[in-house]
Amino acid sequence: MAEFEREAARARDASGEELDGLIFHPAPAVLAALLENPALDETKLTLLLSRKDLPAEILVEVGRRKTLLKNYAVKKSLLLHPRTPRLVSLRLLKELYLMDLAQFALSPGVSAELKRYAEEQIVARLTQLPLGQKITLARRGPGRAAGALLVEGHPRVMPVALENPYLTEAQVLKALARQKLPVAVVQALAAHRKWSQSYNVRLAIVRNASAPMSVVLGFLPHLTISDLRVLAEPGVMAENLRKYLLAEVRRRMLASQEQEAPQVSGDEPGLTPHAQDNESAKEKQNGGKGKRGAHGDRGPEKADDEA
Predict the structure, then answer these.
(1) Does the residue 7 lie in any domain?
(2) What are the tens digits of pLDDT across the range 51-79?
(3) Is residue 55 part of a domain?
(4) Among 4-18, 48-62, 176-190, 194-208, which is the least confidently predicted range?
(5) Neighbours of 278 (CB within 10 A)
(6) In terms of residue numbers, what domain contains 183?
(7) Total count of domains within the chain
(8) At what angle do helices 86-93 and 112-125 cross, to 10 degrees?
(9) Which one, of 53, 68, 109, 120, lies nearest residue 86 by Cα?
């Protein structure tokens, strides 16, 4: 204990190389004393915060001291540390720059709650961003931000957002669920090499009121007949589209009946399997006489010779 007390006292007054060495001291009491050292500038503090094994109580202490958080690099380092307590992180998220928020949201070790909160902060700032930052965010930002930028329908942002690697089908479906979605967004999704192949996206495009008629009619043959019947129910879709849905249902049913028709007929033309069975039964009952008579029975020939 006495040794730790001497180390803590030294940490409060150390400078230069001695201070640099104490940054990696294992004892939490020594590290806490180091925070009181006036020679611990922002560079050395961020170096301390780069330690992955830093005790949680030191992170809490850094987050509690406003004088230490005046530097932005210190705030960022504290927030990105995997052991920073939840309440400290929630408070610091509001003070991060946009792209640092995006970096935090994409960090693999971030909890789902903090990630969602960071994405909410990003989406809330979208309306204030210049075009250049929107394009950058659409390219490298989290999926929720890309989905929000997609909905805006800007001709320079929308194509970039569609290629965002973090954009999920859930975000695309959320965009298509909007009633007042720009037509350009629907057309872009319908023509996209990836999203146009998703059945759920196709169904959502057909349901969307902004979808052009040509796009909807192009997707109808790719929907299941059960979904077509649901969409064709009164009040689900616009009346001018409902007639096309009913026509597609009828077409499918006729095609199904035509496919089943050849399976009903037998192997011989004009003779059904049931008729074939009856004919075979008669032959068995007659002992095959009818067949021999039809082909010239040898019995009558012998009678003629005797005569």
Answers:
(1) yes
(2) 999 999 999 999 999 999 999 999 999 99
(3) yes
(4) 4-18
(5) 12
(6) 178-261
(7) 2
(8) 10
(9) 109
